[in-house]
Amino acid sequence: MLKKHIENEDIIRLISHNDADGLSAAGVIANAIKEEGGQFHITIVPRLKPDVIRDVSKEKYELYVFSDMGSACIKQLNRLKSDVIVADHHQPSEHEPKDNLIHVNPHLFGIDGSRHLSGAGSSYLVVRNMNKKHLAYMALIGAFGDMQCANRFTGINQLILKDGQEAGNLELHEDLKIVSKAQEPLYKSIAYTLNPALPGLTGRLDNSQELLEKMGVSYGISFLDLEDEEKDVVKDELVKVNPQIFGDVYSVPSEHPVLRDLEEYSSILDACGKNKEYGLALSIILGEREKSLDEALKLQKRYREDLTKGFEWISREGAQQLGSIQYLYSEDKVLKSIMGTIAGVGMSAKILSDEKPVIGLSRLHNDIKVSGRATRFLVARGVNLGKALADASVNFGGQGGGHDIAAGAMIPYEAKDNFLHLLDQIVEDQLQ
Ligand SMILES: [Mn+2]
């Protein structure tokens, strides 16, 4: 269907999600169209709300592509008279698509889209047969964005990895998994590494510098500039802190040095998305470097500095303890956008206890934005934060939901204490 419209010289309308996965998804489709000599028009949105569908339905395009979103809205999208492709991996609605709508979603084949295929992956499946295996790596950038790589890729992601290796531009090798090995001084590379977290070092520039000094390694130059023996010393020492710090690294050697590592590419897109700089993210993924990339790296730097401040804050203050949950509360403007990451990494970096879910609360005028994070261990014991936050917030006129391990909600400010006590009760019941 996509090919037909490119041949007809139609301008193709893309609508995608605003996170790293959604931006990569738009990138996969847009690059494929561009390579075939076609044209497109992209809009990036935080959510596919009814008014977004209403607005685009007034436009006169022959083909609409919704990526990393749309599966929950098949009923509304069926009303579009033009051709439609939905390439998503979220839970689909029950509605059958009409003849002019192609619906690509792993759940339709009994495959768990939260773990084995991303929105960028579904989008890749749309273009794969147009001889586009060299775009497989972009699908995996999206999978990294949605945290689908716990040690290794599984399911369809694994097949996409094979495609990329076959195409010859994607390589897999074992290496140290610290961030920005080429452009940041080593002590920052270590302190900025979130996945896997390095307890005692993640978020702690001071500790990281101290450890390197003790080892007699120059902390002020980048990892890649170290002597080989120094690299080995650093590796051995970090493996003692967390063995997972040495493992599979996915890279595109022909890429610009700062985009070579797929996980890092994904974190740069994420930084653009969080700052609503969608145009910047798209120009990078469409191949523009130099200025756009400099801008994006600045955003990433600022984001990492904010996170470091957040980690300092929780190291200093700790979390407030209730029976079955612990919580963080802040009225700081910077912290509100990073609360979920601080809560999650706070546990994995052992800055906070990982025995109870962490609930981050940020005040926004008369409301409170809630971000909850649990661990795989807590989920295995029965915790479902998506359900707990949905049930607790609705009691106070708020709303919430998400995954079992990570979820969010919005509640009125005055309900704060009662909400926390109810949530504590719900989580206690889940753990029974
Ligand atoms: Mn996604």
UniProtKB/TrEMBL annotation:
Residues 13-127 form the DDH domain. The keyword GTP-binding does not apply. Residues 335-428 form the DHHA1 domain. One of its GO terms (molecular function) is exonuclease activity. Signal peptide: none annotated. Keywords: Exonuclease, Hydrolase, Nuclease. Pfam families: DHH, DHHA1. Its EC number is 3.1.-.-. It is an enzyme of class 3 (hydrolase). InterPro entries: DDH_dom (IPR001667), DHH_sf (IPR038763), DHHA1_dom (IPR003156), SSDNA_exonuclease_RecJ (IPR051673). This is SsDNA exonuclease RecJ1. It comes from Methanobrevibacter ruminantium (strain ATCC 35063 / DSM 1093 / JCM 13430 / OCM 146 / M1). The gene is recJ1.
